[in-house]
Amino acid sequence: MNHRTPQADARAKAGVRGTAVRGTAVRGTAVRGTAARRPRRARRWVAAGACALLAVVVLADRVAAGVAEDRMADRIAARQSALVAPPSVSIGGFPFLWSAAAGTYPEVEVEGRAKTEDGLPVTASFDLHDVSRTAGGYAAAQARAEFKVPLDALGAKRGPGVRLAGHDGRLEITRSVMGVPLVVTAALKLTGDTVTLEPTAASLAGRPLNPANPQIAAALKEAERKLPDLPLGLVPSGISVDGGAVTVHGEAKEVTLPGAA
Predict the structure, then answer these.
(1) Are 53 and 87 within 8 A, CB to CB?
(2) Stretch 218-237: mean pLDDT
(3) pLDDT in tens, 117-148
(4) To which H or E segment does residue 173 belong?
């Protein structure tokens, strides 16, 4: 026998409808959450794809630049007999392929090791700006270069017992005179294309000497050297010395690089 009252039946039906409504609301919330996650997931995939594409473009650009740098290094080595090893070439600017298509490069750096005619080792560094393609090769609007010669190699050329060192931008020359060390400190100067030495201090066996001593002045006069012609029409612009090398600086404008690339 059913003892449920009409009020109880009504409450039961209302509970069923409430449960259904809540279930529908939960399903609706789940559907909306899934729909909201889809655009975010799609955006992440698009961002990841764009990053991958950019990485491929950068890699391809660098590979093309590396090939061009190697080709230029090989051609420079073929034309410069004084080089003792292929030079290193770095072509600046990004994207490289855009510059290559236009036939212009904002900066090209070249570094190589060579020997002078009298056997001195030289490290040459060139910094070329605004390089553009011409009918016969390439041209640079401006060029700067440094030619470094090790002090120990220069000292060996002066004879046994001579030692050269750089201190505070000046050259220190040490040699033995009758078994006693003579030390002369000189400032390097560039007069035209000639390197001169101006004595600033001197000592013999640790005792100070007048750097203007005629014998010292005469010895430094004999040490003067005329620079050989610099490549690419570079003009000597300065000379400096540090702890390990003497560096000759050169510069020029409107430099022609026949068949360099």
Answers:
(1) no
(2) 89
(3) 888 899 999 999 998 888 767 788 999 999 99
(4) strand 170-177
Q: How far apart are CA 117 and CA 112, in angstroms?
A: 16
Contact 96, 69 (CB under 8 A): no
* Residue scoring higher pLDDT (80 or 119): 119
The torsion defined by the Cα of 244, 88, 146 and 231, in degrees rounded to 10, comes to 130
Residue with tokens 């270069």: 145
Laid out side by side, the sheet with 121-133 consists of 88-91, 104-115, 121-133, 137-150, 245-258, 235-241
CA distances to 5, 6, 9, 11, 50 from 2, in Å: 9, 11, 11, 16, 70
Q: What is the DSSP letter of 206?
A: T
Torsion angle in degrees (nearest 10) through CA of 42, 46, 51, 56? 130
Which residue type sits at 104?
T
pLDDT of residue 241: 94
CB hemisphere CA count around 39 (13 angstroms): 4
- Asked whether residue 183 carries a pLDDT value surpassing 90, the answer given is yes
- Alpha helices by DSSP H, listed for the chain, are 6-79, 96-102, 151-157, 214-222
Q: Give Rg (Cα) of the chain.
A: 38
Q: Name residue, tokens 């220190």.
A: 172
Please, how many CA atoms are within 13 Å of residue 34, restricted to the half-sphere of its CB?
Answer: 6
Per-residue pLDDT band at 57 (split at 50, 70, 90): low
> What pTM was computed for the model?
0.73
